[in-house]
Amino acid sequence: MKYVSDSVLRLLPENELPVRFAVTKTDESQHYCEIGVLSNLAQSFGKPRDYIFNFERRAFENTNQFNAVLLVPTGIGAEIGGHAGDAGPVARLLAGVCDHLITHPNVVNASDINELPENGLYVEGSILTRLLMGTIGLQKVRSNRVILIIDKHKDKFFDEAAVNAASAARATLGFNCPLVIKMGETIDTKAFYTRSGRAVGKVDYFERLLDVLERYRNDYDAVALSTIIGVPLESHERYLLEDIINPWGGVEAMLSHAVSLLYDVPSAHAPMLEARELLYLDAGEVDPRKAAEAVSATFLHCVLKGLHKSPRIIPTSMTDQVGGISARDISCLVIPYGCVGLPTLAAIEQGIPVIAVKENKNRMQNKLESLPFENRKLFVVNNYLEAVGVMQALKAGVSVESVRRPLQYTNVQEEVGRDKCEKERQTSERTAMILDEDHASVL
């Protein structure tokens, strides 16, 4: 972790605070990394430059419960979970063998649908990372006060649709929304792709959003965002009809990471459509993984439902007092194969078992077996059905090798007794002395 932190900070200007980090490719000589940064604003929040790299090693694993973290990073083109909440069934599958399944918006957010399991915890990505890094704990809540911040759209239809989404959540979910704030001076958000193919983006005038968050700081426990993301109009139709990476997800993750890092609150984002014509795209029948987006006007209800009971961030010292969850309570991390970011590195440092799923193909090009995992802390499986089997084995304390065939012979190594070791050492020293004398005489 120190190597990664030092390497990143050495390359960044002094006024930039890292907020998102990924290793996109590893070869024999280099790690290729991509970093999302917050420029010029971090100092006013008192955040040190190495903030996201802060690490506290857990002293032990608490085995009173079995809690798993399910991660599908946003913007990497994952086969499962890279579209519109299409990892939701995976979350429900894995939750069946857990006390708690801790996951993030990208896994279950599906526009107007959010099928988070009953024992699931909806945790923003940077908060999930800090949990694994050992620097924060989580406390379950009965409900949150969630403010909704939206762009003041030039077409009032979209403002009204967002307000109607909040009203619908209040009427049907019992959602506590103290207020909806329309931003007259909006942030400027653009999406694009990096050289590795990851979806990322750029946010200008971010301070306008921070001004709103500061002004209403006493009125909310969580923040829902619905703002316009600049994407070419043709990209909407291309996304629905072609197999391209969701262009909005990467910059949405940047926004929510920054808000949660600076204010220590849950947050999530839903994109607001730029124009009404996008509502009427005649895309026909689309890929089932994208269908939730083809039938929504606001993409917002999933965010509101998730934030409704998203856990509170607490100091790790308080977790025992309130029955919270910290790094010591995490039993395993489940990721797509090849994904290396701070959660994976934290799991290695914490000794948390990692289950990597090959079938969930993505743009990341890393060989996980080359990382310094402790013995039997990395399990590479073909699919999530196998992942559940490994989770169940870990939970039951059953060696995975013991239920596979062939079963290898038991490893036996004969230790040499102390007296024999001492005799061999003395013999070795005498031999070395004789060799030295012979060598000296030759010289």
* Low-pLDDT residue intervals, each spanning 5 or more residues: 438-443
| Extended strand count | 17
Distance between the termini: 51 Å
The largest beta-sheet arranges its strands as 5-4-3-14-16-17
3D shape: globular
Q: What fraction strand?
A: 15-25%
Helix content estimate: 25-40%
Mean pLDDT: 93
Main β-sheet description:
6 strands, parallel
Number of helices: 14
Rounded radius of gyration (Å): 25 Å
Structural class: alpha/beta
Structural write-up:
The chain has 443 residues and is an alpha/beta fold. The chain has a domain at 1-54. It contains 14 helices and 17 strands. The strands form five sheets. It has a six-stranded parallel sheet with strand order 5-4-3-14-16-17, with helices on both faces. A four-stranded parallel sheet has the order 8-7-11-12, with helices on both faces. The chain has a three-stranded antiparallel sheet with strand order 2-1-15. Helix 4 (125-133) runs parallel beside helix 12 (342-350). The chain is globular and about 90 Å long. The model is unreliable at 438-443 (pLDDT under 50).
Set out the fold topology.
Layout: H1 2-11, E1 16-26, E2 31-39, E3 67-70, H2 88-95, E4 100-103, H3 105-108, E5 120-122, H4 125-133, E6 137-139, E7 146-151, H5 156-173, E8 180-183, E9 188-193, E10 199-204, H6 206-215, E11 222-228, H7 233-241, H8 249-263, E12 267-272, H9 291-294, H10 301-308, E13 312-314, H11 319-322, E14 330-336, E15 340-341, H12 342-350, E16 354-357, E17 378-381, H13 384-396, H14 418-442
